[in-house]
Amino acid sequence: MKINWGTGIVLAFIAFISFILFFVVRMTMDSNSNHDLVTEGYYKEELNFQKKMDAERNANNLSTKIRIEKTTYGWDILFPENMEAQKIKGNVSLYRPSNKNLDFDVPISTSNSHMLIPNKRLLDGRWDITIALEYDNQSYLHRESLTYIKN
């Protein structure tokens, strides 16, 4: 059987379209290709966006900023020294972009304006840290992306 150039072009288009459809179906059915939203309540959190922006502005206007330092024991969160440790209330959220099963939240419990996130809770790689705190009826929000590497 002899194939002319018109039939060859049609067969090439069919082969290409089949190839693309195969990969589209394979990627949508594959359990390793998980397409979750960043958070479960994404739309609800979007409604609180202005409050978060105000809290972030408050944190940026502090005379002494919130800092995160790597120590041999883990990450040490340093709150401004002019804040009384007993009055600081809030939450520290650690988000792992590569695996949502590693995400965790820790309530703020300070000692001398410090809080430690221990090594045993952290794995090597990128972490997004969100520190949401309230002090004297004022909200503060600090966000930072860090890469953790064990010593």
From TrEMBL:
It holds the Pfam family FixH. Keywords: Membrane, Transmembrane, Transmembrane helix. It comes from the Bacteria. InterPro entries: FixH. The chain crosses the membrane at residues 6-25. This is FixH family protein. It comes from Sediminicola arcticus.
